[in-house]
Amino acid sequence: MPHLTEAALRAIKPSGKIERFYDTLGLYLELSKAGGKLWRWK
Protein backbone atom coordinates (compact mmCIF):
# COMPACT_ATOMS: atom_id res chain seq x y z
CA MET A 1 0.00 0.00 0.00
CA PRO A 2 1.47 3.40 -0.94
CA HIS A 3 2.42 5.99 1.64
CA LEU A 4 1.40 9.62 1.22
CA THR A 5 4.50 11.79 1.06
CA GLU A 6 4.73 15.50 1.84
CA ALA A 7 5.24 16.28 -1.86
CA ALA A 8 2.15 14.25 -2.79
CA LEU A 9 0.06 16.07 -0.18
CA ARG A 10 1.14 19.50 -1.44
CA ALA A 11 0.26 18.54 -5.03
CA ILE A 12 -3.35 17.60 -4.20
CA LYS A 13 -5.81 20.18 -5.57
CA PRO A 14 -9.59 20.38 -4.94
CA SER A 15 -11.76 18.96 -7.73
CA GLY A 16 -15.20 20.12 -6.56
CA LYS A 17 -16.11 16.88 -4.79
CA ILE A 18 -15.08 15.12 -1.60
CA GLU A 19 -12.08 12.88 -2.22
CA ARG A 20 -10.16 10.44 -0.02
CA PHE A 21 -6.48 9.59 -0.33
CA TYR A 22 -5.58 6.46 1.63
CA ASP A 23 -2.30 5.81 3.42
CA THR A 24 -2.00 2.73 5.64
CA LEU A 25 -3.82 0.99 8.48
CA GLY A 26 -7.05 2.98 8.05
CA LEU A 27 -5.45 6.43 7.88
CA TYR A 28 -6.60 8.67 5.05
CA LEU A 29 -6.69 12.31 4.03
CA GLU A 30 -10.11 13.70 3.18
CA LEU A 31 -10.19 16.64 0.79
CA SER A 32 -13.37 18.75 0.97
CA LYS A 33 -15.07 20.51 -1.93
CA ALA A 34 -13.61 23.84 -0.76
CA GLY A 35 -10.07 22.44 -0.47
CA GLY A 36 -9.88 21.75 3.28
CA LYS A 37 -7.72 18.79 4.24
CA LEU A 38 -8.60 16.57 7.21
CA TRP A 39 -6.82 13.48 8.46
CA ARG A 40 -9.23 10.65 9.33
CA TRP A 41 -8.71 7.26 10.86
CA LYS A 42 -11.13 4.40 10.45
Could you characterize what this model shows?
The chain has one domain (6-41). It has a 3-stranded antiparallel sheet, with no helix packed on it. The chain is built from 1 helix and 3 strands. It is globular, with a radius of gyration of 10 Å. The model has no long low-confidence stretch (mean pLDDT 91). The chain has one helix at 6-11; strands at 19-22, 27-31, 37-41. Helices cover 14% and strands 33% of the residues. With 42 residues, it is α+β, with helices and mostly antiparallel strands. The longest helix is centred in the N-terminal third of the chain and has 6 residues, at 6-11.
Task: Based on the model shown, name its key terms.
42 residues, alpha+beta, three-stranded antiparallel beta sheet, 1 helix, 3 strands
Question: Can you give me a brief rundown of this structure?
Answer:
This protein has 1 helix and 3 strands.
Helix amount: 10-25%
How many structural domains in the coordinates? 1
Overall spatial form:
globular
Number of separate helices:
1
Q: How many E strands?
A: 3
The Rg value, from CA coordinates, equals: 10 Å
Order of helices and strands: HEEE
As laid out across the biggest beta sheet, the strand order is 1-2-3
Main sheet specs:
3 strands, antiparallel
Taking all residues together, what is the mean pLDDT?
91
Ends: how far apart?
16 Å
β-strand amount? 25-35%
Query: Unreliable runs, pLDDT <50, ≥5 residues?
Result: none
Structural class computed from helices and strand pairing: alpha+beta
